Amino acid sequence: MTKKKGRYSRELKRERKRCREEGNGATFEVEQHQDDATKNPKKQRRKKLSIFERLVKCFNESKHTGSVQMDEAGDHDPVASVRIITGCDWNESKHAFPPDTTGDTLTLRVQPLLILDMNGILCHRSRHTKEPVGVQLRPSIGMTAQTSIIPRTELEEILRYLDRHFCLAIWTSAKRRTANRLLKMLLPPEIRQRLLFVWGQNYCQAENVSPISTENSVESEKEKLEESESDDDDEDNDDTVYEKRLDKVWKAFPLWSADNTLLMDDSPEKCTSSTSNAIHPPAIHGRTKDSIDGTENQNILLCDEENERLQLEFFQKLTTFWTQQPHLRSLAKVHKTKHQSQEMMSYSNLIDFLESNARRHFGWRSGNGI
């Protein structure tokens, strides 16, 4: 029969008193502490990793992407510094920055990180009630969250090109369930399994949340699981903006930084904290060429085919840039503590490239908003 909590507490106190009287108090306390630790493993403190350990951990967890390589290490231990070399071509990367021969430097080679939005970049999600009267759309490949999914006209071609030259990731403001469905519809399986990460709305920072949204956020787990398909992403919340903060990415994946990361999202308001590392081409709208009448806003003046052509040209130039100008980021240990490191060298011409190639059609702005 189960003992009441009060009775159990009294018996525990009596047992402790008896152990102290017999000289076994210390042993009892240690055993009790060990039992508590076993029952509550979360109480045990995690070992804090040094930046070098975090980089190696990130490397090991990113191998599935095919976008990382490690030069053969020498016999020297411990490692005194780490080089992170970014480029689209492994051979050109090694030609520009040959493997270290001293043995005390760990060299990690990575491809640039390209983070893609889905709606507006890979496809158009059509809410038929919001489409202008008389507009003709290309054929849909399926439905999710009460929207028709119309992919880019050259979707597989552009994905395979980007997959060869970049480390790809997906970040959408859609909820996880819809994001997973879109992935299966839009990405070939071999590219899906090489993605560095797939993040949804739960990784975004909600801004301008209305009071009604705040009140409704206090709901039961059952209600969250039974959320309606129509209430699937930010487009159903008029005032809420789901911002994508790249510092979250760089904290989770420290091999990448502001020097070698680019976010592609058609909504500038979702990238206000990382303007220098984000581009915003016009959204894919899914219309046939015959539906482009040139009378609507400037983002709709181009047919999708022309928009996609300009995007491919941009990425071809970006690939050439990263191939011809690999980027070196070097970190050295600070001897005062193993958890500190010093940035010895980190200069990227990425901002200069974007300044010259991504302003007009891609809506790029510098960090100061100009």
Structure description:
With 370 residues, this protein is of the alpha/beta class. It has a domain of 188 residues: HAD superfamily/HAD-like (Rossmann fold, 3-Layer(aba) Sandwich), CATH 3.40.50.1000. It contains twelve helices and 15 strands. It has a five-stranded mixed beta sheet with strand order 1-3-2-14-15, with helices on one face. Helix 4 links the parallel strand 2 and strand 3. It is globular and about 70 Å long. The N and C termini lie far apart (73 Å). The N terminus is likely disordered. Its main location: mitochondrion. Keywords: Mitochondrion, Protein transport, Transit peptide, Translocation, Transport.
Provide a concise account of the structure shown:
By secondary structure, the chain is an alpha/beta fold. It is 33% helix and 17% strand. Helix 1 runs antiparallel to helix 2.
For the structure shown, list the relevant keywords.
370 residues; alpha/beta; Rossmann fold; 5-stranded parallel β-sheet; 15 strands
